[in-house]
Amino acid sequence: MGEPLDPFEDHYWRDIVPQETLDVYRVYRRETHLGAGPVALLAVDLFRGVFPDGPTPLAEAVRSNPRSCGIHAWRAKPVLRDLFALLRAHGSDIIYSTQATADAGTAAAATHRPASERDAGDVALHPDFAPSSEDLIVHKSRASVFFETSLAAHLHDRGIGTLVICGETTSGCVRATAVDAFSHGFHVVVVEDAVFDRSPLSHAMSLFDLHHKYADVMPLAELAAKLPGAPLEATRSLRTGLSTG
Description:
Layout: H1 19-24, E1 39-44, H2 58-64, H3 70-90, E2 93-99, H4 119-122, E3 136-140, H5 151-157, E4 162-168, H6 170-183, E5 187-196, H7 200-213, E6 216-218, H8 220-226, H9 232-240
Parallel strand pairs: 1-2, 1-4, 2-3, 4-5, 5-6
Helix pairs in contact: 6-7, 8-9
């Protein structure tokens, strides 16, 4: 019998990362938590184009739309809906990122993805996660939502202690944003089942690296249990998997 898996490593990467590597990274093990001060939710690039119309396999989805994250995005939708509901009920600030355009004063791109005629529609925020009039939308020109934006100043002005991150892609804009959030002094939580990627391997290893170095990676149910003053019914529903999403 091997050594029982430490709860700190009981995540998406548990069947991918070898025990030798886990042993090397043992020094990073700690109690995950929420930081002091208010909690804000940052939804990274929840674009219409990344979500397929149904539970479509990735290879099929990208044939129709190269921006799609296929089944991985589809599976995250109910978790994202629950996450938004939980944080809104908690009274947390909700922040969205979207892609800046040339009209917004920049022609920079978040990655080396070639431009497409369909980009304008694809990078519109998905209607299932439409922001309210009270939410902040940050237009970004690079992968990180913090790069050359006023996001850090806004969060500091609001006294935010913990930044909860969801969205896509785990290995791209989510990772870049989480590292910058840590660098700006925020406690970072990445919601494991509310982020997604086109590559399961990139997703797993990005979560692994973030969890050990820059963020506390936790599923939504764990976040709900740790959230102080979370509405009782919402917390109970998430703990028992009774989401109706």
